[in-house]
Amino acid sequence: MIQPQSVGIVTPQTAHFDTPLALRSGGTLPSYDLVYETYGELNAERSNAVLVCHALSGSHHVAGRYADQPDSTGWWDNLVGPGKPLDTRKFFVIGVNNLGGCYGSTGPLSINPATGKPWGADFPFVTVEDWVDTQARLADRLGIERMAAVVGGSLGGMQALSWTLQYPERIGHAAVIASAPKLTAQNIAFNEVARQAILSDPEFHGGNFYEHGVVPARGLKLARMIGHITYLSDDSMGEKFGRSLRHGKAVYSYDVEFEIESYLRYQGDKFAGYFDANTYLLTTKALDYYDPAFAHGGKLTTALAGASADFLVVSFTTDWRFSPARSREIVYALLHNRRNVSYAEIDCAAGHDSFLLDEPHYHAVLTAWFDRIKV
Amino acid sequence: MAAYRYDYEVITQWIEPGEKVLDLGCGDGSLLKHLIEVRQVQGYGVENDPDKLLACVRNGVNVLQANMDEGLTDFEDGFFDHVIMSLSLQAMHNTQGILAEMLRVGHEAVVSFPNFGYWRHRQSILNGRMPVSESLPHQWFNTPNVRFFTIADFDALCEMNGIAVRERIGFDEGKVVTEEANFLASMAVYRLGRD
Asked: What is the pLDDT of residues B99-130, one digit of tens each?
């Protein structure tokens, strides 16, 4: 055992692909870039690669930090590093910014070669399956025939699950965390409200706001505020903010009074300052569309019949956006197919956000599971 | 790792190679691990204790977190060849419910439990104290057990619920007991089915 350490200073890389990519939505991208980071060393047998898939607002920057930015710690830094559950002394860990993203991979901010202008709203719809296809191409590029594991939380968990269905021969293990085999109507409803906030912002300009030199910041802010409400539990919000009043008493104004208002506005403003509205729209649609059982008459057991990986499924007791019941659907459909699967329901107060925290039991389960993976 | 338990040997005898096995209250997964090694079973454990669940993951056995007192509703009818509950039945509230569920999701159920009718336990009660022994290692104030029953009680329950006792083996702290099991056996292992 060593004390968990950071992977240290990291540098993103870009892979350019010239083979056209046929998308599930009908279009074809003639070429595209994927931005990615890696941590640890690929072994001689190329058998120790683990792909970490990101969720709605994540990126390829999973762990470590950038040399010139002290506050640039990766979004899952507590998971990845020497002595951490996903131990980079054993594994070669890959983070990739998904297609349609806004952190450097080809997306709505990129120039559409057909027009010479940013794609904006014309960027084609991308799906979880499309992302997995591009991730597999990146694996080809890195000389990785088979992933030791693919890991993801929330929308990232959907990608891990999809890997086992699209490339069963190329994945050994899948960790599907705080995820679901498809969104519920309620979950789609939250996404739709978030999208409407963006779409109805006058500065959205039908998605072509770049050429107007503006961003639909109010829409993005609202979308993020709604999201944050659903990522926390009632209890954790109550514990963190309660009914605390900034002025100690009601002052009868629409400015910030309750601390929760301050938190949501701050998170919303921060997000609107760096995230792309078109990427947000695309990504929430990818979430909504994901439903591997759809092509099998709604039968998840049939959909998962082709999966061959060993699974770890994890949910959190207070997560109501991706509730334990959704994870259990995956677990028992895998059991039906006699797949190797373990399922942990972690007692954590933090709601959907729990999957990003280093709750000790959660990380102990992940550590034990990764330890068992032979490379 | 938990100590090797002598009911494991009997249970192993009743499992055919390659079976689908569910172990309810599987602890650290050592029975499943044993059955995987010697019977190549497709094994799954159910555990609701976080530390035991973690031990299962460390042991490399499939473990599903669930509260068995809420039944086995997520499991399909007749999916497993054997559903095992080793030394856990006495810690379940809904005894009849879980027995019915075991025989719904499995073709046969295997159950072991400490026999409260064991002569040393009776002696202890006669002396005015609750029994503490190898098979009942806890004190009355910290025992996880919530149901206190004898082999004769369990036989009567099976009869009342139409459960067929296909085999029963009693043990006196490791040695097989051939007669007067309710008096001489500290623990019993049952193979149950529906006729």
From this structure: 999 999 999 999 999 999 999 999 999 999 99
Residues 6+ apart with CB under 8 A from B13: none
Show residues of chain B in contact with A347, CB under 8 Å: 50
> Is residue A264 within 8 Å of residue A231, measured between CB atoms?
no
Q: Decide if B76 and A336 are in contact by the 8 Å CB cutoff.
A: yes
Q: What interface predicted TM-score (ipTM) does this complex get?
A: 0.94
Handedness of CA B74, A175, A375, A145 (dihedral sign): positive
Return d(Cα B117, Cα B180) in angstroms, integer: 11
pTM for this entry: 0.96
- Token pair recorded at residue A220: 């993005």
In our burial notation (b when 16+ CB lie closer than 10 A, e otherwise), range A201-227 reads: bebbeebbbbeeeebbbbbbbbbbbbb
Q: Which residues contact A340 (CB under 8 A, 6 or more apart)?
A: A310, A311, B62
A269-280 residue pLDDT tens: 999 999 999 999
Q: A180 near A93, Cβ under 8 Å? A: no
Distance from CA of B16 to the nearest CA of A (A): 17
Topology (CATH) of B6-194: Rossmann fold (3.40.50)
Residue ranges of the domains in chain B? 6-194
Average confidence (pLDDT) over A74-79:
98
